Amino acid sequence: MDEVLYPEEALAFLRQMRHDPQASRGFESLSTSFHWSDEGLPRAMRLCMNHESRATFYTMVFRTSLIKGEPIEEYRRNWDQLRQACPEWPGFRPERCSTDLLPAWQRAHKRMCLDFIREMRELERGEEPPITPAV
Fold first, then answer.
1. Domain region containing 61
2. Nearest to 60 by CA among 33, 24, 87, 99
3. Is 1 inside a domain boundary?
4. Of 42, 77, 115, 126, which residue is the least packed, with the fewest Cβ within 10 Å?
């Protein structure tokens, strides 16, 4: 399996996702990307991993590149595969891919970096950093 592309099992799951106007937005640190609670990405990620695919990672990174106004073209085929297979997936909503999100993304990214620096300093001092729940 090509790690950039979605296995059918994950696509079948993502086809079921529907927009929720009350969906909450989170920030995923590894991909430095926004995600929304109605997108189904955590479960899709597990389904992809069962097939040695990292497709959800590439989707999130590509969307962030759209938000930044600098699309990463080598990841576009992942985005296009998902768009063709799951055109109603909530993550394609224009307001979730818009450059209007850039200031919010920059704030979230800066907060993530500052949290990381704080945790490293605490570790250097021999303190245990607080455990923060995954978003």
1. 8-124
2. 33
3. no
4. 126
Which has the closest alpha carbon to 64: 55, 48, 75, 54?
75
Structurally, the chain folds into a number of domains equal to 1
The pTM for the full model equals: 0.85
User: Long-range contacts: 66-75, Cβ < 8 Å, 24+?
Assistant: 66/97, 66/98, 66/99, 67/34, 67/97, 67/98, 67/99, 67/101, 67/102, 67/105, 68/99, 68/102, 68/105, 69/99, 69/102, 75/4
pLDDT tens, residue order, the chain (135 aa): 688 999 999 999 999 999 999 999 999 998 999 999 999 999 999 999 999 999 999 999 999 999 999 999 999 999 999 999 999 999 999 999 999 999 999 999 999 999 888 888 887 877 665 666 655
Whole-number Å distance between alpha carbons of 4 and 135? 24
**From its phi and psi, is residue 126 left (phi > 0), alpha (psi between -120 and 50) or beta?**
left
Handedness of CA 51, 53, 57, 60 (dihedral sign): negative
Length of the chain (residues):
135
**Could you tell me if residue 89 is inside a domain?**
yes
